[in-house]
User: Fold this.
Amino acid sequence: MSFFGYSKSHQEYFVKNGQKVVYGYKRYIVTSTDNDQWVYFLKKGLIRVSYTLLDGKERLIGYFVPGVTFAKSGTFFDSPDGTLEYTTGEESVLYRLPRDKFLSELKNNEELSSDYMNMVLRNQIFLIDRVVYQGENGIHRKLLRWLLFMAKYYGSINNGSAEIIFFLSQEEIANFLHVTRVSVNNTLSFYTKKGVITTKDRKIYIPSLDRIKELLE
Assistant:
């Protein structure tokens, strides 16, 4: 079960009342210049969430996984400087509704509203943890803390081990950590040789989460 959960109430409502849309790999769903005010429910796939700095550099925030509801920055309140963009990390199936229709239903549907509030609170926890790993000193501590972060939010955990549920390129990891791809390559190689991490089907596998915690002490 994902940390973010899977909202059955949102799935039921969006499938019944929304418009189904299917996007192929690396397709833009939302850009900062879009004017449409859609609210989306992700039924299947993976959505990459990023933003653009003033100098044009992109920064990766994270991913939406199946079962979550999301919208463009500025859909619910004015955000003229919002630069959030959503692209597919794999072929994805979504349902979408106009903002006003979704907000109206939230006022009248207690279960839908409760699930949405739960999503908002979980996203807040996610963003706080993101600040924590970025605040670590040095690439080694930052990478180790990031591995725990990824295991918590995007990991399949079993008996103290974890597998990140999707493939990440070194470029994407560097983007997550705000470091160079070369430093990511060197640090990943270092911990792979020590057996702290391995790769399985091109995904990162962590044999022991406790070992990473010990290295951070």
In short: Confidence is low (pLDDT under 50) at residues 75-79.
